[in-house]
Design brief:
Keywords: Membrane, Transmembrane, Transmembrane helix. Strand 3 and strand 4 form a beta hairpin. By secondary structure, the protein is of the alpha/beta class. The chain has four domains: 173 residues, Cytidine Deaminase, domain 2, CATH 3.40.140; 68 residues; 48 residues, no CATH class; 51 residues, LysM domain (Membrane-bound Lytic Murein Transglycosylase D, Chain A). The strands form two sheets. It has a nine-stranded mixed beta sheet with strand order 1-9-2-4-3-5-6-7-8.
């Protein structure tokens, strides 16, 4: 089966060069975190991914990154021991990938390839089409290089793509203490933010097209029904009454279908609010029932107490079941979940929604999907 390009991508710079470079957005965010936390000191990471030929074009897909430790020897950047240690971490977190390059962040330094950088790349990444990324977080600059023809040649641009990346999420949780990222801190990644907004706009546009088609078909059907029934019942008053009832039924059905479509495109937030309102209404109804029971004779009060106890046990069992499904640092999104509901499950209130958004690089809390793993603050 022929490989296909990722569907959800964002272009950075001019991507006319070969090979095409695709960086998963969690990796891109992690590299920015490393550089930002390095402050005035240099920092680095090894890049994990794969080389493929997609639709006849050479491509590099970078879906993992591992923190890099520097050599104690001033004459080299990476020691053999540091490289072998990174290889072990790669086997633990990214079994399907290979080490295809590295990233170096040097705040305030010149954005040029010096002898030490070139010798390091030739020693550990001498294969064709390996990648080197040079960053300067002080000046907010980055340059991509590809090793070919025995030279590190600058690449004009690359793509940032989004796919499920549980392996990178898992590594980010492990490495956040090493790089000094606290649970409530996330580097603001404008590219990732714009990308998620683009995905949301595409989704809404598709839903709008579906709704428009449904409305058009329903309107045509209604016109046909009116014409047929109008001809057959023109001189019959009794049949005209029947036609009127039929048209009313059809109109209500069309309106109902339109409302259902609108509710679907409104997203998970509206569904969560409706569920919350329903729970509140049920809670108020229960409180009213308990109040009425307290005004009845003593035997009925006992029955109400037993019912309340049973209800509390059910809630406790449900809470325990939910907590068992969560790990210490990751929450897996379930059907009907929103960030507000997740915050209430984990922390008991909805005040942690912004922290969860920042931790996972989410600009819009509605854009989550079933099975997604969220890093918890």
């Amino acid at each position: 089966m022929e490989n296909k390009f990722p569907k959800n991508v964002r272009q950075i710079g001019n991507v006319s060069d070969t090979p095409k470079i695709y960086v998963e957005d969690y990796v891109d965010t992690f590299l920015n975190q490393i550089c930002d936390k390095a402050d005035k000191e240099q920092a680095g990471a090894f890049l994990v991914g794969k080389k493929e030929v997609t639709e006849g074009q050479e491509c590099l897909y970078i879906f993992g990154a591992i923190c890099m430790e520097f050599s104690d020897d001033e004459n080299e950047i990476i020691s053999q021991e540091n490289f072998e240690k990174a290889e072990q971490e790669k086997k633990e977190y990214f079994e399907e990938g290979t080490m295809i390059g590295w990233m170096l962040c040097r705040p305030g330094a010149r954005m040029v390839i010096d002898t030490k950088i070139f010798n390091t790349h030739e020693k550990y990444f001498s294969e064709k089409n390996t990648i080197f990324i040079l960053k300067d977080n002080a000046e907010m600059e980055e340059q991509y290089y590809c090793y070919k023809y025995k030279e590190l040649m600058q690449i004009g641009g690359h793509y940032v793509y989004y796919e499920k990346n549980a392996a990178m999420q898992s590594y980010m949780i492990t490495a956040r203490k090493k790089i000094g990222v606290t649970p409530s801190e996330v580097v603001e990644d404008k590219a990732a933010k714009d990308f998620r907004n683009l995905v949301k706009e595409r989704f809404e546009a598709q839903e709008q097209k579906k709704t428009s088609r449904l409305t058009y078909v329903a309107s045509v059907f209604l016109v046909i029904v009116v014409l047929i029934m109008g001809v057959t019942t023109l001189n019959n008053y009794g049949k005209m009454k029947s036609v009127q009832s039929s048209l009313e039924f059809i109109r209500n059905s069309i309106m109902k279908q339109g409302e259902e479509k609108t509710q679907k495109t409104s997203g998970a937030v509206k569904a969560a609010n409706e569920q919350q309102n329903e729970n509140t209404a049920q809670s108020e109804q229960t409180n009213d029932s308990q109040t009425e029971e307290q005004q009845d004779p003593m035997p009925q009060q006992g029955e109400g107490s037993d019912s309340a106890s049973t209800e509390e046990e059910k809630v406790d069992d449900s809470s325990m079941s939910t907590m068992q499904e969560m790990s210490e640092d990751i929450y897996i999104v379930e059907k009907g979940d929103t960030l507000a509901k997740i915050s209430k499950k984990v922390y008991g209130d909805s005040g942690h929604v912004d922290a969860i958004c920042r931790m996972n690089g989410l600009s819009d809390g509605n854009l989550i999907f079933i099975g997604q793993k969220l890093i918890l603050p």
